[in-house]
Design goal:
The chain has 67 residues and is mainly alpha-helical. The protein is 55% helix and 6% strand. The protein starts with a strand and ends in a 6-residue tail after the last strand.
């Protein structure tokens, strides 16, 4: 799943640590989501999207895996 978290953070001049604190997770989790090593849970995805006043679809892009 692709996401636009890093771009949104930079646009708002926000560190991973500050975003993590705001949405109730760790900086390591934000790093892992940004790099695609971890997919955010649905509740966390909603928190991140709401934090940036965006819809989930504006923050996260679902890409179907091809077989």
């Amino acid at each position: 799943m692709k996401n636009h978290i890093q771009e949104l953070r930079k646009l708002h001049n926000l560190s991973q640590e500050k975003l993590a604190h705001a949405v109730g997770t760790t900086r390591q989790t934000i790093t892992s989501i940004e790099t695609g090593k971890y997919t955010a849970s649905l509740p966390l995805a909603f928190k991140i999207a709401r934090f940036f006043h965006k819809s989930i679809e504006e923050v996260f892009e679902y890409c179907e895996e091809e077989d």
